Each structure stands twice: as C-alpha cells, then as structure tokens.
C-alpha cells in the first residue's frame, strides 16, 4: 500500500515507520514524505532512506481569506499525494489542522498519532497537562482522522507510568519511545486490513498478548 508520511519537524516517528516498512514483505511502502515546512529536519531522514520527499510550503498559502488559503493548501496536498499514487496517509507530527474536505477525501485512509491517551488531552502540551492533572498513566494513541482535531476511531494505544520526578520532557521521552513501537504496529494492521472502522469504532484482528500489556495492539 503506497503510503505517504506528512511531517512538520523532527520526524522521529517517520524514522520508525521507514525502518518498520523497509522489508519488502511489509504491507505498506513509504513512498513519499511531505512537509509543510521547508526546514523540517525529518526531510533528511527521507533523503537518507532514498524516499521521495516534497515540500508544500504553507507560507505560500497565506492571505487575508484564511478559509480560502487553507482550502488551497489542502488541495495542493491532495494533488501531490494523488500524483504519487498514494493510497494511505500517516500524519506524524504534522502541525496543521486539515480541512473537512481533505479529511473526507482521505477518509479511513488517513491516520494520526497523538501523544496522550485519547480522549484525554487532545491538543497541544499534552505532557505538561497530564502532569498537572496528576494522572498516573499517560501514553499515546493512533487513530483514523476526523474533522474535529485529535478525534476519530482509535486504532491503538500504549500507556506509560507517570513517575513522581517526571518533567514534561522526561514524560515526553517515555511516551515517544512507545510512539515508535505503536505507530508502525498500527500502520501494519491498517495496511493488512486488520484494523477496520465499523460504526466509528475500530475492530482489530490481533492475537491476544496475554492481557497484562500496556500496549494494544501488541508490537
Ligand atoms: C509526536 O509526539 C507526535 O505524537 C506528535 O508530534 C510529535 C512528533 O514527533 N503528533 P516526531 O516529529 O515524530 O519526532
């Protein structure tokens, strides 16, 4: 399944997806990396891996009519994806809210990773907010994208303990390590047709891991 990864910055989840999808028998092929920012460090990971990359520079789509600018940007994004024959889109640190038209165009073929156990802590600064709320487990979620930010049928989740001495940075690092396991596992399931949206919930076809794991699907 020809897959694009959309990034805005560092690209560590992109790296994890590239590494997981490298074997020829993997059901997804990372065929394109798209960034909305020309300076995104993640673009270098695409180059190193010999994967085509492209920038759709959001600064070229500014203007007084914000809705029109957003629509034009998302249309350019879809055009680039279609030109590359993309069938599946992974958002990986893509720091832009997509229009309803884009989300509808790629419905059930557009997935995201978010650094919290959704529906807790949608939006930004999830680690600081988790610490402030005093939760004892935090984590990450992969989900099919819907128009409302950080909403949509959940594919998988991984949890980590919140420790007394945690700072937002130390907690972020513990969650990120799990993101790098969860996202590739979920992309594989979606590409294999083993994570299906049924009535706005995802039905997973997975081998049970024994029941005591803090990650579902197991990696
Ligand atoms: C990750 O924490 C991801 O969950 C969030 O943005 C961050 C991107 O990190 N959406 P990276 O660019 O993949 O390193």
Overview of the structural elements:
- The chain is of the alpha/beta class and 219 residues long.
- The chain has a single domain (2-216), classed as Rossmann fold, CATH 3.40.50.170.
- It contains six helices and ten strands; from the N terminus they run E-H-E-H-E-H-E-H-E-H-E-E-H-E-E-E.
- The strands form two sheets. Strands 3-2-1-4-5-6-7-10 form an eight-stranded mixed sheet, with helices on both faces. It has a two-stranded antiparallel ribbon with strand order 8-9.
- The longest helix has 24 residues, at 168-191.
- It starts with a strand and ends with a strand.
Keywords:
219 residues; alpha/beta; Rossmann fold; eight-stranded mixed sheet; two-stranded antiparallel ribbon; globular; binds 5-O-phosphono-beta-D-ribofuranosylamine
Distance between the termini: 20 Å
Shape: globular
Examine the coordinates and then state which fold CATH places here, giving the name of the CATH topology: Rossmann fold
| SSE run | EHEHEHEHEHEEHEEE
Strand order within the widest beta sheet:
3-2-1-4-5-6-7-10
The helicity comes to 25-40%
Number of helices: 6
Instruction: Kindly report the average pLDDT value.
Output: 96
């Amino acid at each position: 399944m020809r897959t694009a990864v959309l990034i805005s910055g560092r690209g560590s989840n992109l790296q994890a997806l590239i590494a997981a999808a490298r074997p020829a028998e993997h059901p997804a092929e990372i065929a394109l990396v798209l960034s909305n920012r020309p300076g995104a460090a993640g673009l270098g990971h695409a180059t190193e891996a010999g994967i085509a990359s492209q920038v759709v520079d959001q600064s070229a789509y500014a203007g007084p009519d914000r809705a029109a600018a957003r629509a034009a940007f998302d249309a350019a994004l879809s055009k680039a994806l279609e030109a590359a024959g993309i069938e599946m889109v992974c958002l990986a640190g893509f720091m832009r809210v997509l229009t309803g038209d884009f989300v509808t165009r790629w419905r059930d073929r557009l997935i995201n990773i978010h650094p919290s156990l959704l529906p807790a802590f949608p939006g930004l600064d999830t680690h600081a907010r988790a610490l402030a709320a005093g939760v004892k487990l935090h984590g990450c979620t992969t989900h099919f994208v819907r128009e409302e930010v950080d909403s949509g049928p959940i594919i998988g989740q991984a949890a980590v303990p919140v420790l007394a001495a945690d700072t937002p940075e130390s907690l972020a690092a513990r969650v990120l390590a799990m993101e790098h396991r969860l996202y590739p596992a979920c992309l594989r399931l979606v590409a294999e047709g083993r994570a299906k949206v049924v009535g706005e919930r995802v039905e997973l076809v997975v081998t049970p891991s024994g029941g005591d794991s803090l990650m579902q699907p197991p990696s």
